[in-house]
Amino acid sequence: MKILIVEDQHRLGRFLKQGLSECAYTVSWVCTCREARDALADTNYDVIVLDLGLPDGDGLNLLSEWRRVGFNEAVLILSARDSVEDRIKGLDIGADDYLPKPFSFDELLAHVRSLLRRQSAVKQTVINHRCVRLDLLGHTVELEEKAVDLTSREFALLEIFMQNAGRTLTRSYISERIWPGLSDTNLLDVYMSRLRNKLEAGLSEPLFKTVRGVGYRLV
Ligand code: CA
To answer: What pLDDT shows up at residue 133?
Structure first.
């Protein structure tokens, strides 16, 4: 389980990193919006613990950027701003949880555990979108109730879209999940076109939308 801490207060950041690492989580800690952007562009996390007052910007803007481009990591806001309005604003922008400072470490741990549990609970084994049915256990795909033959990479690619229907997924987000460590993003275009050939041929409306310069969206 990977956790990203975005916190500019050094003592707190260090304390969180150490405490969570001791609980067997893989923890990265960054202090600025810029570093957080880079970290998330690089890899995916299971939970992000996000401070709001950061030296080069506001954590809320960062969060809304991530949601706009389709990052669906669970986000726990950790902030000294604890009015009801602040909490509502954070949740509306796309935070999954809000913990006001000061907090106890055990309380934070309980929130992190609950976010992780919620994530695994929503992982369904059969996902339906329009006329596509993807069975994660059986590893099968049906289009209008007819089996479609996909390679394992094509299947993994379709799974990412089915888990995030309606969200624009960036090229790097997708590539990192299908081909970790490989920087050749042309591969993605090749696979997208194969997937489209197999799935969109008989449909009146396309399944995938290309978002120019950003990535793709399942529509
Ligand atoms: Ca701060």
So the answer is: 95
Tell me the C-alpha to C-alpha distance, in Å, between residue 38 and each of 43, 70, 80, 93, 181. Answer: 9, 15, 25, 21, 15
Cα separation, 68 vs 165, whole angstroms:
13
Per-residue pLDDT of 143-187, as tens digits, reads 999 999 999 899 999 999 998 888 788 888 888 888 877 767 688
Q: What spacing in Å lies between the alpha carbon of 137 and ligand 1's midpoint? A: 43
Predicted confidence at residue 120, as pLDDT, reads 67
- Residues forming CATH 3.40.50.2300 domain(s) in the chain: 2-121
Give 159 Cα–ligand 1 centroid separation in angstroms. 37
Q: CATH homologous superfamily for 2-121?
A: Response regulator (3.40.50.2300)
CATH of domain 126-218: 1.10.10.10
- Rounded to the nearest angstrom, the distance between the alpha carbon of 54 and the centre of ligand 1 is 5
